[in-house]
Amino acid sequence: MHRRTLLALAAAGLAATSLAGTTVGAQAQEIFKIGLILPMTGASASTGRQIEAAAKLYMAQNGDTVAGKKVQLIVKDDTGVADVTKRLAQELIVNDKVGAVAGFGLTPLALSVAPLATQAKVPQVVMAAATATITEASPFIVRTSFTLPQATQPMAEWASANGMKKVVTLVTDYGPGIDAEKTFTATFTKAGGTVENMRVPLANPDFSPFLQKVADAKPDALFVFVPSGYGAQFMRQFTERGLDKSGIKLIGTGDVTDDDLLNGMGDAALGVVTSHHYSAVHDSAENKAFVAAFKKAAGFRPNFMGVGGYDGMHVLYEGLKKTNGVGGEALVNAIKGMAWTSVRGPVSIDPQTRDIIQNVYIRKVEKVDGELHNVEFATIPNVKDPVKAAKAN
Ligand code: VNL
């Protein structure tokens, strides 16, 4: 064959290849895939169920097209095991070419994906996990849940202001529990109180031996942190040991009186005082509409995990509107500083830390229309994660 023909053929081949490449690229660009990795089975299954329902509700309400792109949600069950979370994230990033990974029910699961998000420059929206340091693990992490120090500090201040002098803390022995313990202890002792610390394992926890020690120590209050999904077992053992009638007040972050489980805990939960960023009976028009729509779509009550999922979808949608559909670092930058009225109240994404700034409410378990609820009675406005706020100063 003539050399020139060969060159022409080669050029045509190249053109065809690049044309095909462009076509494929254009098609891929029209879809923005979100890999939603959640514990759908195992001890934290309620967190997965909540976030999946909320993400789907957000899409049903806001449409599945944003900035000209079709949004596609790919839900994966990591069973609450970090190695699985990491493998799923890898597959979603490399094979499915997702524009964002989201979900992350527990701290170790969120941390396992952080290096991948950094390497692939893919935004990682943490909708649940709440150890303070998580957002420092990758500049591509944005968080729409909360941090334990953020929720705990107001509780320690409230306990001290309400005459408590001696408190025992009982926390699940991993990131968020240790954050809660440290924050409670530092704040409460600074205000003049004394604290004794106890930790219970995350896997198959048995609270009874610790509760016996609490009964013997006779503190004014027991401060508890257990992750969402563990509160019912804790309350059962608390009641079995007779602590509900011991005069020792039960306080904690709102994880223990999680709205998903609370109504099944029985009257022993009445009067428990907790601090948190969301209650299903938060009194706002936005929340009433949200709760009604969520119950109708999912068949159960939303909890704070569901709201983390709902707001996580919000930052992705609004971010994509701002970038005109561009993902990666531009999308993270578009989310920084974003402010809106969430169903939990006014919130914003701290542009420095990529954590959520939000109100923390002090609440008490009461009966509302025959159901147990966390009724908010005090508001601490615009709380930043205190650990990172202290570092910045
Ligand atoms: C975490 C923190 C998980 C708070 C939770 O429930 C929770 C975590 C599953 O960071 O692992 O309520």
Description:
The chain is α/β, with parallel strands linked by helices and 393 residues long. It has two domains: 31-146 and 284-354, 3-Layer(aba) Sandwich (Rossmann fold), CATH 3.40.50; 149-276 and 360-392, Response regulator (Rossmann fold). Helix content is 44%, strand content 23%. A hairpin with a 2-residue loop joins strand 2 and strand 3. The longest helix is centred in the N-terminal third of the chain and has 27 residues, at 3-29. The chain starts with a helix and ends with a helix. 4-hydroxy-3-methoxybenzoate (VNL) binds at residues 44, 47, 105-107, 128-131, 175-176, 227-229, 255. This is ABC transporter substrate-binding protein. Pfam families: Peripla_BP_6. Belongs to the leucine-binding protein family.
Report the count of strand segments: 15
- Distance linking N and C termini: 74 Å
CATH superfamily of the largest domain: Response regulator
For this structure, the CATH topology of the largest domain is Rossmann fold
The total tally of domains equals 2
Assign the CATH class of the largest domain: Alpha Beta
Order of helices and strands: HEHEEHEHEEHEHEHEHEEHHHEEEEH
Number of helices: 12
Beta-strand content: 15-25%
- Model regions low in confidence, pLDDT < 50 over at least 5 residues: 5-29
Radius of gyration: 23 Å
Bound molecules: 4-hydroxy-3-methoxybenzoate
- How would you characterize the largest beta sheet? 9 strands, mixed
Helix content: 40-55%
Give the CATH architecture of the largest domain.
3-Layer(aba) Sandwich
General form? globular
Mean pLDDT: 93
Structural class by sheet pairing and helices: alpha/beta
